[in-house]
Specification:
The chain has 258 residues and is an alpha/beta fold. The protein is 34% helix and 16% strand. The chain has an 8-stranded parallel β-sheet. The protein starts with 15 loop residues before the first helix and ends with a helix.
Length: 258
């Protein structure tokens, strides 16, 4: 479950050939479970220039893009839905990996629209569904990879029945719904426990990540890093992306050597 399944939906950014063509970097499918992956969170960009801002961070070395979908019910804020993501996919082309985080009630209703829009990976909240196994099957059948997210107050033991069925675990390091919150370092024991139990599954963290907090997250075992304002506030985000990826890779090497 830790490596991406083969996916022939080229429009959704999962084609190995297409990913290899992005600056000749190693493909996500070859490295996603082990190395640092930096995904700028588009909520933090200049939303009047969504496609240009997305391309700017991809050109600066971002490994993927993180899109928070909020419905005003599961969380109090509202962001965007399938039409915006579909337009973004059309603008960016097939190779960019769109990591789509559903902060919504009834995520089952969003699977087919998001697949049609071009989402590469769909992350649902364990708190939002009564039947996570059926939802996982539905997402895979729609041609996307599957992630599961937990809010700060949710016990990681709730993930036990499904961890082996997903491609990624997202540990929220802020309360979901708004950007710009401070990083919750007290979530790191969750990451440490998950990393000890599942050495090769990708663990994503989202909320308050940047140069001042990346070491804490990396040492705990996170390797997919969602970063918003810390990336988009830079005129040239190349250095901050490289810094965060380097911190994750260094921590991973130390764990493997231990």
């Amino acid at each position: 479950p830790c490596m991406p399944m083969k996916n022939d939906r080229k429009k959704n950014g999962n084609s190995n050939l297409e990913l290899r063509q992005v600056k000749n970097r190693t493909t996500l499918s070859e490295t996603m479970a082990y190395s640092g992956q930096i995904g700028p969170s588009l909520l933090a960009c200049d939303l009047s220039k969504l496609a240009a801002e997305s391309q700017r961070v991809i050109d600066a070395g971002a490994d993927y893009l993180h899109l928070d979908v909020m419905d005003g019910h599961f969380v109090p804020n509202i962001s965007w839905g399938p039409p915006v993501i579909k337009s973004l996919r059309k603008a960016l082309g097939p190779a960019v990996f769109l990591d789509t985080h559903l902060m919504v009630s009834e995520p089952e209703k969003w699977v087919e629209p998001m697949a049609d829009a071009g989402a590469s990976q769909l992350i649902f909240h364990i708190e939002a569904t009564q039947n996570p196994e059926a939802l996982i099957t539905k997402i895979r059948s729609a041609g996307m990879k599957v992630g599961v997210a937990i809010k700060p107050k949710t016990d990681i033991e709730e993930l036990n029945p499904i961890v082996e069925q997903v491609d990624l675990i997202l540990v929220m390091t802020v309360e979901p719904g708004f950007g710009g919150q401070k990083f919750m370092s007290d979530m790191m024991p969750k990451v440490e426990t998950l990393r000890a139990r599942f050495p090769s599954i990708p663990i994503e963290v989202d909320g308050g990540l940047g140069p001042s907090t990346i070491e804490t997250a990396a040492q705990a075992g996170a390797n997919w890093i969602v970063a918003g304002s810390s990336v988009f506030k830079e005129e040239d985000p190349t250095n901050v992306i490289q810094l965060m990826r380097g911190a994750v890779n260094s921590a991973a090497e130390k764990r493997q050597a231990a």
